[in-house]
Every structure is written in C-alpha cells, then in structure tokens.
Design brief:
- The chain has four helices and six strands, in the order βββαααβββα.
- The protein is α+β, with helices and mostly antiparallel strands and about 100 residues long.
- The longest helix has 6 residues, at about 45-50.
C-alpha cells in the first residue's frame, strides 16, 4: 500500500491583492484602489507620529511622504525605505 500526502503552503487571502492606483489627498492620507475593486482611505499620520526610528520619522516631512510610488503592487517610498503590509493597507489601518 502506498500513502501519498501532498503538502502545500496555505495561500493568504492577500496573495493576489495588488494596488492599482493611489492618490495623496492631504495630511498623510492616501486613497488606495486595489485590483479587486476595493478602495480605502488610509491615514498614515498616527503611525508616523508613533515611529521612533529616524528613517521613518523623516516621512513626517510631508514633501517626503508624498513621494511614494507603486512598485510590485504595493506602496513604496524611496526604494523600500518605507513600505507597509498590503493587508494593513487593504484593511485601511496601519498597525504599529
């Protein structure tokens, strides 16, 4: 008798999720549209105010914060200097 067991990684509900577009509104708030049609307005200010690391604190300068891009379906600042889990963005809240 031969027993065969197939193991596979469970897929996250967010594995296929991507950001299609994002627009900076004001005061550290970005409106994000995802590839499943969902839209969220995310306020990054509470996270940035609590951040202790200088590499994150520099994004309290609004001109730095507004300079994000969409890279590989996620928001990205300065070549991965600052990036957030897509699940947090999709849920509309940055968890510190």
């Amino acid at each position: 008798m031969r027993i065969s067991v197939e193991y596979s990684k469970p897929q996250s509900q967010f594995s296929e999720l991507r950001i299609n577009s994002a627009k900076y509104l004001a005061d550290y708030v970005i409106r994000i549209s995802f590839n499943d049609g969902t839209r969220r307005v995310v306020d990054f200010k509470p996270f940035l105010i609590k951040a202790l690391h200088p590499s994150m604190k520099k994004y309290l300068d609004e001109s730095n914060f507004a300079q994000f891009s969409i890279l590989d379906g996620n928001l990205n600042w300065n070549d991965y200097d600052l990036i957030f889990p897509i699940s947090d963005l999709y849920n509309g809240e940055i968890i510190s």
